[in-house]
Design a protein that fits this description.
The complex is a heterodimer of chains A (93) and B (362). By secondary structure, chain A is of the alpha+beta class. Chain A is globular and about 35 Å long. In chain A, the strands form 2 sheets. In chain A, strands 2-3-4 form a 3-stranded antiparallel beta sheet. A two-stranded antiparallel sheet of chain A has the order 1-5. Chain A has one domain: Arc Repressor Mutant, subunit A, CATH 1.10.10.1150. Chain A has 3 helices and 5 strands, in the order ββββαααβ. The longest helix of chain A is centred in the last third of the chain and has 17 residues. The mean pLDDT of chain B is 95. Chain B is an alpha/beta fold and 362 residues long. In chain B, 35% of the residues lie in helices and 13% in strands. The chains are: A alpha+beta (93), B alpha/beta (362). At the A-B interface, strand 2 of A face loops of B. The complex binds iron/sulfur cluster (2 copies). One iron/sulfur cluster (SF4) binds next to loops of chain B.
């Protein structure tokens, strides 16, 4: 499965964002895994709500951070593909 | 040496279990129900663990479902802010209990697999009807919606079922499978001749896992623990002693790993003695094998010391008679050749003399 602009990413049950107050960082928690997120990673994952498409998410982030959409699309696609392969993300479309 | 905060905690809620697997990682001196921590003690330990930096708690045993307060314990762990994973054989779980665990906020279930058919699974688990029940529970887990990991413990007697275990994981909708070749601690030490895989099996398992990882990318995540008696380098046990995780035994003893109590010169605090934070950072036992000051010259000067930390301390004790020695699994250890010969001899042992785990006589 690969991510297209129309894909709607969703964090499946058992995978959730968590603020690690001891290390003062955001992490993505999944079975046996805790992935420390940098601010960019957190910004991307925080936009995922199971209803908005990848294209919408990229456009939103581009507006918010005043950055070129192509770069945001590339960065987020890399992150999300990695999560897909590890069963930490699903696509509903 | 300043330690970093721990990431994970294994909460061994009880040693009680309906099964009696001959490789159970519980100690030979199993604790009875009377010795177990109360619900409140566990809730307090979960809060302390979260304050210390723990993110994942693994609710384990024995069989955690043997605790009638399991649902309450899940609520307490979630309230503390922990990611909750239930490690179970499935026996003792009903549809109703799974619903209650769902409401309690349980994040994930890890179901153990003793074999892929009743003949194998029930013989290894020492519990007739266990396999059928487990398959029923797996269905309920799926229906409840829990994400599922299968935990296949494999050894000489069931390694031929590995391909079927992988298929089964996909079929029942597991997202992950842990394929763990039996590690020789606890009860497994008594069963080395019955369980030791042959070298050919150990190699074949690696090949099967590698092939399946490619074929099932994005469908099934496969974690693999190789047969370390047949390896060239030891495993990085617990990611390094006192570096990433801790265990709490049913009676509240806080341990760097589940076999740590086999090291006779160390003494371990319980949650009744001192705060968890103090035990983690300041206790002699947790500091005993941190960093590399304790290492023998062989490891201290080796470029792999940050990869495997000199291997497993409990295995060094069991095989070299010294918990501070290089793990004899390592090809650089003077004991390696002897261990290899032993592994071959065990692998040629008979299949039919399993020593099942049992409670010590009262
Ligand atoms: S290894 Fe077997 S006997 Fe030991 S706790 Fe797990 S299911 Fe029970
Ligand atoms: S010598 Fe020690 S550090 Fe080096 S590989 Fe062997 S066990 Fe690991």
């Amino acid at each position: 499965m690969s991510i297209t602009p129309a894909s709607v990413p969703v964090l499946p049950r058992g995978v959730r964002l968590h603020h690690d107050r001891v290390r003062d960082t955001w992490v993505l928690l999944a079975p046996e895994r805790a992935i420390r997120l940098d601010p960019v990673g957190h910004a991307v994952l925080a936009e995922i709500d199971g209803t908005r498409s990848f294209a919408t998410i990229v456009a939103t982030l581009a507006g918010k951070y005043d950055a070129p959409p192509e770069r945001i699309a590339e960065d987020s696609r890399g992150l999300l593909t990695g999560l897909l392969n590890r069963r930490m993300l699903e696509l509903t479309e | 040496m300043t330690a970093r905060p721990p990431l994970a905690m294994l909460a061994e809620l009880t040693h009680r279990c309906p099964l009696s697997c001959p490789y159970c990682s519980n100690p030979l001196d199993l604790l009875r129900k009377e010795a177990e921590l109360s619900t409140g003690d566990w809730a307090d330990a979960f809060r302390q663990a979260a304050d210390l930096g723990v993110l994942h708690v693994h609710l384990s045993g024995g069989e955690p479902a043997s605790r009638r307060d399991l649902e309450e314990l899940v609520v307490a762990a979630r309230q503390a802010g922990l990611y909750t994973n239930l490690i179970t054989s499935g026996i003792g779980l009903t549809e109703r209990r799974l619903k209650a665990l769902d409401e309690a906020g349980l994040d994930h279930v890890q179901l153990s697999l003793q074999g892929t058919d009743a003949a194998m699974a029930d013989r290894i688990g020492g519990y007739r009807g266990g396999f059928e029940r487990k398959m029923q529970v797996a269905e309920w887990i799926g229906a409840t919606g829990f994400p599922l990991t299968l935990n296949a413990v494999v050894h000489r007697q069931n390694l031929h079922q590995l391909p079927e275990a992988l298929d089964m994981a996909v079929r029942i909708g597991a997202r992950r499978i842990e394929v763990a070749i039996v590690q020789f601690h606890g009860w497994a030490m008594r069963n080395r001749a019955a369980l030791m895989p042959t070298r050919a099996q150990a190699e074949e398992a690696k090949r099967i896992v590698e092939e399946a990882r490619k074929r099932l990318l994005g469908t099934l995540v496969i974690d693999f623990v190789p047969a370390d008696y047949h390896e060239e380098y030891p495993k990085s046990c617990m990611g390094g002693w006192g570096s990433t995780g801790l265990n709490i035994a049913p009676d509240g003893t806080v341990l760097p790993c589940h076999a740590a109590q086999t090291i006779p010169h160390l003494s371990f605090d319980t949650v009744h003695d001192r705060p968890l934070r103090e035990i983690w950072y300041d206790s002699a036992a947790f500091n005993a094998y941190r960093g590399d000051d304790w290492m023998p010259e062989l490891c201290r000067t080796c470029d792999r010391k940050h990869i495997d930390h000199g291997g497993c301390r409990c295995q060094a004790l069991a095989l070299a008679g010294d918990a501070g020695a290089t793990d004899p699994v390592c090809a650089k250890s003077p004991l390696h050749a002897g261990l290899r010969a032993k592994a071959e001899a065990f692998a040629a042992g008979p299949d039919d003399n399993l020593t099942y785990r049992t409670l010590p006589p009262a």
